[in-house]
């Protein structure tokens, strides 16, 4: 009788006393379950196994300890966990039934375990676990635990596997345990503890959980069908080439693709700058882009202890890849052909003319560095070339002991910039991946922005225009007008055209102060302006991101000459293209060619010391975008926000790593279980910060939404014309009123004749009154179609309305001020659109619905006068340009594409 009710996985609900029809298993195990556990109490009508339910069939069944609702969400949690382990039973592995018996025992208790004896006194009938240890054991069986692995104090080895029982390091022979005053205290306390969070159980949960199992196959069903469009790493060339080389792996869409990110951080904020730890975080690229980088789907796999761990961005990449990011060959892409030169006290990555075609006239121009450029572009190093380089790298001893691995070793010339062979090469597929390590766009963009702002504003701490920079120009014999010279006993430094004057510095800073962003778009940048309005202080990575792409092209337009401004705008336009949610391959190919010209133009403008490794790495970002897909799934912003969450777990400053580990597993357990609670607010169904609830019971769409006002309320009296225009716009755009609109137009055609030219104007003027009379006539006749909402909609509005300076809306009527868009009042230059706000248009048609609006904000345009504004478009972070595949809860529309920005390099008079 039960066979027809097996689900598509071959599972069926078990009516034994342990499973209580809340957990499913394979059908062949049904008899043994009932024989071992007994048949459940109260299951008289077999509603889960074919018998129709009757009116007296209860909604609860009596278990061993009382009534348990059949819809208890925690049974769904365990059902998903156990169903994933069922295959192990079939091949003789550990039995899921035995493994989870105590979980079901805890679940069948009257309440979840409590915390304190006070709860027992207040609720004497509650069955509580006695200790935190018992609760942790339950979580571990659900795959929500971690392992503590002792580490040598010099980082030589782990006391794990074959070393797990040793008391001294197998490399440096240092003691595993801490000594107090040179003596053993009687309690074994390790020097360092590595926290390892097993990845396997966490990946199994993603497939076992009904809430995410379908999403884990999105990379196969949701990838772009246009070869030129990239929205996800699956659309990148590296993913596609990997699938061609490993068809067996690619053939099973359940195989997992992971991304790894690591960065050091200080768990104490500013309390101790000398302490840092290194979390290793994984993201699952099987998931769609709108959830892939959310904190709930990131996995902490390792927590490497402090107090000394790699901290910075590019050096951290060097630690993982093995290629040093310092010296003459710092670029990991150019390898031994990195363009570089020595300047006073530093290495400058200068000489981008070698990337130009061999017959380009700039190669013979002596104004760049006083020489003709004859070098060819850097070679493309194949996998075989890289493996051959790594074969020549000498194997060092791990650790930091001064007599072992801690000895600084001078690299040989044949080792190039390789410090070590990365452990990732032990993975069988690693050598075949085209994009092994990503350049982090977040840190590169911040460093570029800091260099530009510091030099333009003449910041004494960040400017690249130093005295030594001027001496470098004298050594190269170029730009004689910028050389230092002596005036009596003084050393004079000529003013460069790439720095703002004192007045222009204040003008730029006041422009930054004047900018008002939409809610949640960016921080308040006015707080970063120094008191004397001469420089910007304390800019974060996202501040630099906003300044580079939104403000710098506008703010500096009138403050430097056109050649300098246009070059800066071109560089900022490239970052706009690169950071778009949808990236076109053709745009990146074109950007690759244009960036060579942009960097060459920058070499004509700024001194060589300006070109640190971050400026040079910009050149390789388009190529990495083609290989890896959009940068928003590869940069560090999501991981930096995740580190903030880890920092918030620290409650015991003496044990920061332990606090983070314990806080993480508790948060992970709550996150996992909260997927199953639909009737309470969780992080998965919580409204967004600016969401406004829709009334689900409304009959007319115009009444479905709410508006949440912000700021102080004031009252405005409308004149008759404004009120009539607003009323008609609402009535004319309500789809439920279309029959009435057509009926009124038909009556006008009959009354005025078909040849009447102003019939639309008459319809606009008379419809509201006609509609009011018709609805009230129907209401007096008690017509069933006249509802309270329809009656309210036909009534006249008040002349006095509430007004607020801002509001959070879903759908509401906007009264707009339209600007003229002719050539006299609107100018577009270098992707910057400026509007004259004095040119007002459409004064008689000022109303639109919010659904018809596009989100923009305006910033002042200092170069054109006080009445001009630059239009800045806003893209919502939760909107994606992806075809709907049945996931109706996702808003799938967005206009943020790299093709929206045209990157054209103006060579000017160079």
Describe the 3D structure:
With 910 residues, this protein is α+β, with helices and mostly antiparallel strands. Helices cover 32% and strands 12% of the residues. The chain is built from 27 helices and 28 strands. A six-stranded antiparallel β-sheet has the order 6-5-7-11-10-9, covered by helices on one side. A four-stranded antiparallel β-sheet has the order 23-24-28-27, with helices on one face. Strand 14 (485-487) and strand 15 (490-492) form a beta hairpin. Helix 14 (441-456) packs across helix 17 (541-555), helix 19 packs antiparallel against helix 21 and helix 24 (720-732) packs across helix 26 (759-780). It is globular, with a radius of gyration of 34 Å.
Secondary-structure topology with pairs:
Blueprint: E1 11-13, E2 24-26, H1 30-37, E3 60-63, E4 66-69, H2 73-90, H3 96-99, H4 101-107, H5 117-122, H6 132-141, E5 147-151, E6 158-159, E7 192-196, H7 199-208, H8 218-221, E8 229-230, H9 237-245, H10 247-251, E9 258-262, E10 278-284, H11 289-292, E11 299-304, H12 314-321, E12 341-343, E13 346-348, H13 383-391, H14 441-456, H15 467-476, E14 485-487, E15 490-492, H16 502-514, H17 541-555, H18 562-578, E16 583-584, H19 585-605, H20 613-617, H21 621-628, H22 637-648, H23 656-674, E17 707-710, E18 714-717, H24 720-732, H25 738-752, H26 759-780, H27 788-794, E19 800-803, E20 806-809, E21 813-815, E22 818-819, E23 826-829, E24 832-836, E25 840-841, E26 847-849, E27 856-860, E28 868-873
Helix pairs in contact: 2-7, 14-17, 17-18, 18-19, 19-21, 24-26, 25-26
């Amino acid at each position: 009788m039960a066979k027809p009710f097996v689900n598509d996985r071959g599972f069926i609900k078990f009516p034994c006393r342990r499973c209580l029809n809340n957990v499913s298993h394979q059908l062949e195990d049904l008899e043994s379950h009932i024989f071992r556990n007994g048949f459940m109490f109260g299951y008289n009508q077999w509603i889960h196994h074919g018998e129709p339910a009757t009116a007296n069939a209860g909604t609860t069944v009596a278990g061993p300890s009382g009534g348990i609702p059949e819809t208890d969400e925690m049974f769904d949690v365990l059902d998903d966990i156990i169903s994933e382990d069922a295959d192990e039973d079939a091949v003789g592995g550990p039995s899921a039934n035995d493994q989870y018996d105590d979980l079901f025992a805890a679940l069948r208790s009257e309440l979840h375990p409590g915390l304190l004896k006070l709860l027992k006194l207040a609720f004497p009938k509650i069955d509580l676990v006695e200790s935190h240890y018992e609760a942790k054991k339950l979580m571990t069986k659900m795959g929500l635990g971690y392992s503590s692995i002792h580490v040598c104090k010099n980082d030589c080895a782990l006391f794990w596997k074959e070393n797990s029982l040793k008391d001294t390091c197998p490399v440096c022979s240092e003691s595993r345990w801490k000594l107090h005053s040179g003596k053993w205290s009687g309690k074994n306390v390790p020097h360092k503890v590595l926290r390892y969070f097993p990845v396997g159980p966490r990946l199994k949960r993603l497939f076992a959980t009904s809430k995410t199992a379908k999403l884990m196959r999105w990379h196969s069903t949701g990838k772009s069908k246009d070869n030129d469009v990239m929205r996800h790493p699956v659309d990148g060339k590296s993913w596609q080439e990997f699938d061609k080389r490993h068809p067996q792996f690619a053939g099973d869409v359940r195989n997992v693709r992971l991304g790894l990110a690591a960065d050091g951080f200080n768990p104490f904020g500013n309390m101790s700058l000398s302490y840092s730890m290194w979390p290793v975080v994984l993201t699952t690229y099987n998931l769609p882009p709108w959830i892939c980088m959310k904190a709930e789907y990131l996995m902490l796999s390792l927590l490497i202890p402090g107090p000394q761990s790699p901290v910075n961005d590019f050096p951290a990449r060097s630690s993982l890849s093995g290629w040093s990011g310092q010296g003459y060959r710092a670029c990991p892409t150019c390898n031994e052909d990195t363009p570089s030169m020595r300047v006073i006290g530093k290495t400058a990555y200068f000489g981008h003319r070698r990337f130009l075609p061999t017959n380009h006239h700039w190669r013979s121009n002596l104004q760049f560095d006083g020489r003709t450029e004859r070098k060819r572009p850097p070679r493309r190093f194949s996998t075989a070339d890289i493996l051959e380089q790594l074969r020549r790298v000498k194997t060092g001893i791990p650790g930091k002991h001064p007599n072992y691995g801690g000895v600084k070793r001078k690299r040989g010339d044949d080792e190039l910039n390789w410090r070590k062979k990365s452990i990732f090469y032990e993975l069988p597929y690693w050598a075949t991946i085209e994009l092994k390590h990503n350049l982090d766009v977040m840190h590169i963009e911040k460093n570029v922005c800091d260099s530009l702002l510091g030099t333009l504003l003449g910041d004494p701490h960040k400017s690249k225009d130093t005295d030594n920079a001027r001496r470098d120009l004298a050594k190269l014999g170029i730009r004689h007008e910028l050389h230092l010279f002596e005036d009596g006993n003084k050393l004079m430094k000529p003013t460069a055209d790439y720095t703002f004057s004192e007045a222009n510095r204040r003008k730029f800073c006041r422009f930054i102060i004047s900018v008002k962003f939409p809610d949640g778009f960016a921080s308040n940048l006015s707080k970063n302006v120094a008191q004397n309005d001469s420089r910007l202080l304390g800019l974060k990575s996202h501040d630099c991101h906003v300044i580079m792409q939104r403000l710098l092209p506008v703010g500096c337009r009138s403050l430097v000459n056109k050649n300098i401004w246009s070059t800066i705008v071109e560089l900022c336009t490239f970052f706009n293209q690169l950071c778009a949610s949808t990236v076109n391959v053709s745009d990146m190919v074109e950007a690759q060619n244009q960036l060579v010209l942009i960097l060459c133009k920058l070499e004509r403008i700024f001194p060589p010391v300006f070109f640190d490794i971050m400026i040079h790495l910009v050149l390789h970002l388009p190529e990495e975008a083609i290989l890896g897909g959009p940068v928003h799934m590869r940069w560090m912003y999501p991981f930096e926000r995740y580190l903030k969450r880890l920092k918030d777990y620290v409650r015991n400053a003496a044990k920061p790593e332990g606090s983070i580990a314990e806080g993480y597993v508790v948060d992970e357990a709550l996150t996992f279980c909260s997927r199953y609670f639909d009737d309470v607010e969780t992080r998965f169904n919580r409204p967004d910060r600016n969401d406004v609830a829709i009334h689900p019971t409304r009959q007319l769409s115009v009444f479905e939404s709410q508006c949440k006002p912000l700021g102080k309320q004031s009252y405005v009296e409308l004149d008759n014309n404004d009120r009539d225009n607003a009323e008609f716009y609402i009535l004319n755009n309500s789809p439920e009123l279309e029959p009435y609109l057509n009926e009124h137009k038909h009556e006008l055609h009959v009354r005025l004749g078909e040849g009447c030219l102003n019939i639309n104007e008459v319809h606009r003027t008379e419809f509201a009154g006609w509609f009011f009379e018709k609805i009230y006539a129907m209401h007096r006749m008690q017509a069933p179609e006249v509802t309270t909402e329809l009656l309210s909609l036909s009534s006249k509005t008040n002349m006095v309305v509430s007004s607020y300076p801002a509001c959070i809306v879903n759908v509401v009527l906007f009264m707009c001020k339209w600007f003229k868009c002719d050539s006299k009042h609107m100018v577009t230059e270098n992707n910057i659109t400026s509007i004259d706000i004095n040119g007002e248009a459409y004064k008689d048609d000022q109303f639109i619905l919010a659904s018809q609006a596009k989100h923009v904000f305006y910033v002042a345009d200092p170069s054109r006068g006080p009445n001009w504004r630059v239009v800045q478009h806003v893209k919502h972070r939760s909107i994606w340009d992806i075809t709907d595949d049945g996931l109706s809860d996702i808003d799938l529309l967005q206009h943020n594409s790299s093709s929206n920005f045209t990157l054209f390099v103006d060579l000017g008079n160079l």
